[in-house]
Amino acid sequence: MATRTDIPHLRKTKNSAQLVVKGKPFLMLPGELHNSSLSSAKFMSTVWPNMSAMNVNTLLGSVTWEMIEPTEGHFDFSELDKVILGARKYDIHLVLLWFGSFKNAMSTYVPQWVKKDVKRFPRVHIEDAQGNLKTIELISPFNKRAWEADAKAFAALMRHLREFDREHSTVIMVQVENETGLLGDSRDRSRIANDMFRQPMPEELLTHLQRKEELHPLFEKRFPELRNATPGKSTWEDAFGRDLIDAEEMFMANAFSRYVGIVAAAGKAEYPIPLYTNVWLNFDDPSTLDLSGVPLGEGTPTVAGGGAKAGVYPSGGPCPHAFDIWKYNALALDFIAPDLYLHDYETICQQYRHGNQPLFIPEQKRDDKGARRVFLAYGSYGAIGCSPFGIDSLRAEDTQLTYTYGLLKSVSKHILEAQSNRPEDIMGFFFDEVDEEKKGKEEWTQEFGELEVTVNRAFVFGKPGPGAGMVIHQGNGKFLLIGKGFQVTFKSTNSKSTFTGILHSEEKTVDEHGDLHTARTMNGDETRSGEFYIMPNDDPDYGGFPIAVTIPARTCIAECTAYSIEEAEDDF
What we know:
There is one protein chain. The chain is of the alpha/beta class. It has 17 helices and 23 strands. The protein has helices spanning 41-44, 48-53, 65-68, 78-89, 112-115, 144-165, 191-198, 203-211, 217-222, 236-239, 244-270, 300-305, 323-329, 345-351, 368-380, 400-410, 412-421; strands at 9-12, 17-21, 24-25, 30-32, 58-64, 93-103, 123-127, 133-139, 171-178, 275-280, 335-340, 360-364, 385-388, 426-431, 444-448, 451-457, 467-475, 478-484, 486-492, 497-510, 516-521, 533-535, 557-566. It has an 8-stranded parallel sheet. A hairpin with a 5-residue loop joins strand 20 (497-510) and strand 21. The longest helix has 27 residues, at 244-270. The mean pLDDT is 94. Residues 402-532 form the DUF5597 domain. This is Glycoside hydrolase 35 catalytic domain-containing protein. Keywords: Glycosidase, Hydrolase.
């Protein structure tokens, strides 16, 4: 059996965990493929060169139950093996997405022999708008025979990965199912589900939730009266009964998380690399969604942004208010990962770092806005990876991700060291275009030792541009600045300080080992006479000003040392 130290694994850091591959910390620069891409090694042969040119080092792609077990008991990994060999050739790692029983709250990726046998694998039934029962393409999560069959197939996949890939670590993580839950209703209305809903809530689960000291804040907010329920006696409606839909959603969360937990445990027993599941998020307030630039056709916010009601978003999935039930039941999962498109990016990062679990974003926007946001996730929230969806239909020369990933790759050594040992010394941030309908945060501030650092957009005489980057405190007032389109101002937090300024600053290059070298010493115009340090955009807007005092971006890496002085009365 492979040990947890010679295969990809998560290693605890000061306040979270870091992915380790081949014995070294690894910063994923990932993208998620379209759902069908990884099913064909021939198709992927056209994808690898473009991904390499884009500086992608990890691809997420699906492995479907229907492909690996087309006939019950007979497994076929031949196409997957060819894909893995292709990834190795280009030195690209893989995160496999197990599309087993559940994918986007449906069961469309199960084998034909599962789909057609409703006696052995009964379906979920929901109520339509007229109150009639309706059969949907979703396997019942209450069915032991279904989770046993899924677990058997997933265990076979993980066993094969151990045998085929352990010595190479091409596959570094696996996602168990995809956006699990129930759409169209808040709970299953089948006879077995109805009977179970009327029974007392599982005593062990209720006792755990009542005794746990740090429940997710959104669980606490939504269910403050849960601690008054009686273990062994209170039904789901008794425990969560202020709103029947809440009780039904938590009932389904328990069912789905137990199912996924059983499947994950079967795979973990075969090959214990990191496992996670992802979530189709909900929203409580639609005004918090960032819909700028989104064509608001019928259903668009619901599909991309979630929904405000269980059943509009997948009921029972691992949304923040169901996080604790999932963590209790699915112990073989190392973390839960949010698919993040239209929600407030920083808020979701905060919610899915709960309990110091590692942050991984398996799906997000692939446009320029998405590329800018990854700096925040990696910098301020210690992300192990942020994965734009549909990356294989982008061209490396046309996307901002090529620049972003190239820059992050070059300084990954410094990011990983700060994430692991000094998370308080690293901050990420971004600025969107100034004319967007919904303006984002315009100033980012954090204290590092005795210095307060403020980040704003880069100064220009004309129209300010977008920007994104990181600041890493290296000690003694020295900061590593990464990115473009921003400026950094320093202020001493010492009440006796009478002046804070820039002591020294240099533009940096980086070699293949990640070591920094001085390119130019920067002063004067490049620091606005010591007022702040500018990390300019590629094409600063001079706004008609006759002197080109702002230089264009070049390496997008700099070191800047700030200092402060204390003066006595006789110094004035």
